[in-house]
Amino acid sequence: MTHLASFIFVAFIAVSHTASVMETSPEEPELSNFISREFEPIMYIYDEGDAPVDQEVDSDAVDPQVNAKVVMEDFEVPQELIDKAKNATIPDDIDFEKIANEYGDDLKKFKENFVHITENATSTTSKSYTDCQKLFEDGKRYNGVYEILPSRSLNAFNVSCDFTTDPGYGWTNIMRRTHGDLFFYQNWNLYRNGFGGLGFDHWLGLDKIKYLANQRPSTLRIDLYDCNGQHRFAEYDYFALGNVDTDYELLLGVYSAGDAGDSLSFHRYQPFSTYDRDNDAFSGNCASLYKAGWWYNDCYESNLNGLYFECSTPPPGHTGITWKTFGGFSSSLERVEMKVRPKD
Fold this sequence. Notes:
- The chain has helices at 3-22, 29-48, 79-87, 96-103, 105-121, 132-137, 188-193, 206-214, 286-290; strands at 65-66, 71-72, 144-148, 157-162, 171-177, 195-196, 202-203, 218-225, 231-236, 239-241, 250-252, 255-258, 302-303, 322-323, 335-342.
- It is of the alpha+beta class.
- The chain has a domain at 170-342: Gamma Fibrinogen, Chain A, domain 1.
- Strands 3, 4, 5, 6, 7, 8, 9, 12 and 15 form a 9-stranded antiparallel β-sheet that branches. Strands 1-2 form a two-stranded antiparallel sheet. Strands 10-11 form a two-stranded antiparallel ribbon.
- Helix 1 (3-22) crosses helix 2 (29-48) and helix 1 (3-22) runs antiparallel to helix 5.
- It is globular.
- The two termini are 33 Å apart.
- The relative contact order is 0.11.
- Residues 123-344 form the Fibrinogen C-terminal domain.
- It comes from Stichopus japonicus.
């Protein structure tokens, strides 16, 4: 998928998500009309590519884009639509802050993503970055979606960069869980290739994570948020993945920083497992039992790709988003992010 097609796709994700919030809100017709006027042709192209989320993705695909409802295939974007997206502007008479107060965080994220995407549309460059840390060193400070080309990858791909969680560094997100909209109980091919929207909840994909983390020694950071608003984190001083013939074995260093405790070392040297590819050390199928893809041992002390539960709902059968040393097995975390950067 071309870079322009990629940013148009991300723009549509932000806009369509916002439009769904606006459908029952006639009090603010200006924004609704603006969305329809500027992006209806792009929505049409998007609809043409609809496919069910459980559709199997070709394991040889270079850069499949998957979100909660659709597997996107590469498509050619007509030049007039590219020009339309690049030239779209935010009308002066729309008060985004006023509307955001009424419609919540989704519209705030739409505003940020829209401005960032339209700015990037006119400032593409041939310069390659290997990860978000290189982008940070080049002066980038806006959290968002950027294109990178890891040193061992033949193809560039988009990632979500975090420049604010740990000031002074550019972290590359490899997983984000913030809502229950995206189903993480997926098959091997989807875990290998990635799924979700980079501006929202997503799994980057085992192949891309390997290219990203293995190009030079990397640090892993995991940010965890419980239902009481507590935030804790864990860092590991080395993180890499084995090759596909080892089923992306987890190569993990020591727990080196944080206050969440160590619930990942138990999974060190374990291959990745999904319900349709059982590689765990248990006589049964951990991925099927606990509804996730993960580096299961026999079975787990962490299960960050588990099922998402609302805070008032206890996870049945320990199937939730779990970190043993923060919350235990009887509750499910509300939000989780996994991210990597080059080791100091």
